Amino acid sequence: MKKKILFQSDCATSKTGFGRNSKAILSYLYKTNKYDLVQYCVSQREEDPILKRLPWKTYGTFPLEGNVPKLLENLEPQEAENRKKLFGYGEALLDSVIEKEKPDVYFAVQDIWGIDFAIDRHWFSKIDSVLWTTLDSVPILESAVKAAKKVKNFWVWSEFAERELHKMGHTHVKTYHGAIDGSKFYRKSDEEKLALREKHGINHDDFIVGFVFRNQLRKSVPNLLQGFKILKDSNPDLKTKLLLHTNWQEGWNIQKICGESGVDIKDILTTYVCKSCRGYE
Q1: What is the pLDDT of residue 73?
Q2: How confident is the model over 53-71, as pLDDT tens digits?
Q3: What percent of the chain lies above the pLDDT cut of 70?
Q4: DSSP-assigned letters across all residues of the chain
Q5: How far apart (Å, rounded) are the C-alpha atoms in residues 260 and 101?
């Protein structure tokens, strides 16, 4: 009999880091034909038609609008608001999905505040349960430290988080980096790379440092630009460009920081994607 895996995370169709992780892992497991797979899709509504596109069984985490008032009745306003914020992560419907599917293994893959509500459920310790969470700063969030104390299978995406938690005595914590589909990544030939440079007006001898990120204020963009200026000043003969694949309409004012850091804006490359044809340059 196949083991049943319940995988709670962003839907495999989502264009997010968690979504791509889900797609890579579940597609691989599906091809092995060794498991019954069920995905509990974060932020998807119960009736979302996109869920039917996936080859494995799926559930949305957000309850039907008509059922929301009942789920919040008898709660104080602030308590109701706090619980509603967790509906997208799956707090409201998780028990019913567990009861219906009776998985052998439960994976919860999300930021810690989007999965730690599962820890105290009556079924959590009765099945093989795994919390796999992103911790991207120190000090480690107190909620994550509390979770690590309780959860046998506590995984993190980054080794520094593992080291920090080990220092606190939680030596069972393990690092598992996010999954990728290796078939999508390969080295282009020198000829192809030169053709790409010519197409986008980049000199063949430019040394390019690339950074792909969402332009959020918690990202160290000023430090990056200051470091780039140091690199340029220390290597005047190196034709260096900084490629920022990001959104320029939110977060940091990159052009202003360039001026403050002494970085020539002409040394910054970025990506333009056409909303109509999805072509880029």
Answers
A1: 86
A2: 999 999 999 988 888 888 8
A3: 100
A4: -PEEEEEEEE-TTSSSHHHHHHHHHHHHHHHHT-EEEEEEEEEEETT-GGGGGSSSEEEEEEPPGGGHHHHHTTS-HHHHHHHHHTTTTTTTTHHHHHHHH--SEEEEES-GGGTGGGTTSTTGGGSEEEEEE---SSSPPHHHHHHHHH-SEEEES-HHHHHHHHHTT-TT-EE-PPP--GGG--PPPHHHHHHHHHHTT--TT-EEEEEE----TTS-HHHHHHHHHHHHHH-TTS-EEEEEES-SSSSS-HHHHHHHHT--GGGEEE--B-TTT--B-
A5: 57
pLDDT in tens, 28-58: 999 999 999 999 999 999 889 999 999 999 9
Sheet of 57-62: strand order equals 57-62, 35-45, 3-10, 105-109, 128-133, 153-156, 174-175
In angstroms, how far is CA 11 from the centroid of its own chain?
11
- Token pair listed for 117: 């509500």
Please give the Cα distance from 186 to 183 (Å, whole number): 7
Pull the structure tokens for residue 111.
């930021």
Rg of the chain in Å (alpha carbons): 23
Query: Average pLDDT for residues 193-222, to the nearest whole number?
Result: 93
- Rounded Cα distance between 24 and 187, Å, is 20
Other beta carbons less than 10 A from residue 164's beta carbon: 19
Please state the length of the chain. 281
Rounded (10°) angle between helices 221-234 and 254-261: 40
pTM of this prediction? 0.81
Handedness of CA 74, 76, 77, 79 (dihedral sign): negative
